[in-house]
Design brief:
Layout: H1 2-20, H2 24-27, H3 34-59, H4 64-92, H5 96-105, H6 107-116, H7 120-142, H8 153-163, H9 181-184, H10 188-199, H11 203-230, H12 237-250, H13 259-265, H14 270-292, H15 295-311, H16 315-334, H17 337-345, H18 348-359
Length: 360
Amino acid sequence: MIQKAIGFLVVFILFPVCMGLLWMPGMNRKKYRIDQIYLSGFLTELAVFQLIAVPVMILKAHGMEILVILTNVICGFLSAAGVGIALVCRKKEGAGLKAAATNLKGLGADLKAGFASLSWECWLFWLLAGAAVLFQMYMSFDRASFDGDDAYYVVQSVLADQTGVLNRIKPYTGLSTDLDIRHALATLPLWEAYVARMTGIHAAIVAHTLLPLILIPLTYLAYFEVGRKLFEEKNVKLPIFMVLVSIMQIWGNSSIYTNATFFLTRTWQGKSIMANLVLLVILWLLLEILDDKKRGYVALLVVSNIVAAMMTSMGAFLAAMFIGIAGLIAAVRQKKLSVLVKLALCCIPNVIYLLMLLVL
């Protein structure tokens, strides 16, 4: 139980929050937003794992132990760097540690004042939105569904966790095999095995039970960021937007191929995370970049492209195509070719990943 608690705190709270602080100076925020900190940090953790997992997997078949150690060391270093950068930024702003502590004490008063300024309509729709998210989390936990792809992807996670072998055992037969580059370069099953190692929870339980409780609210956090760019934060339209999104997800099972079906029944699969979270984060970052043009969002877009490659072999191509189309439209609308060039440079990781699929 102690390992489960410590592992969960490290993987899903400590690493994301501390690494998320790395991005705040580039976003030029006078007041740091915990929602953006966590979302940015979680993406950074996944990208770091992808950058470590691919070379370790290619070079060493029995590499799970090394993969876990390297991930913890590098994520720990980046977490410490994030905390240090945050403290330096506060000091440069003339706040200092004592003033920062005072600001933290006043956070409750600021939140109370913000809540008090909301209309009763906002309160009502926010309560409905929160209830809808909790309902989806409960149903995903209580009515966990089996999918045919589990026989491959979840078994890969179980094999990596229990044998330490990285993608060189056939999930269907248990026999040894060569590295399947088409599937292996999308390392999400290995990350789920890493979570299993850190928490001591069986990899199948991590996939079916634990990850939906993390990924569902995280996806709605990304929807919230998109909504903040489309509507004013205290406008009743924002909670209405969140309620409508929840309705479309809950009743979106019109076929087995909709993103809503994948979101609530295959939450742990890379194709689901790609369609529901990564592309949504890219949309949010594009809105931020084209509006505020802050460096932090541009760098975070590069990280998101690495995460897209981690999810599925088609992820890098789809993310690059999405960004390219958005960049072309923005360049025509703003009459600036530099916009397209800047967004195209963010897709360099996608090009490298696609070349690896062709060469290896």
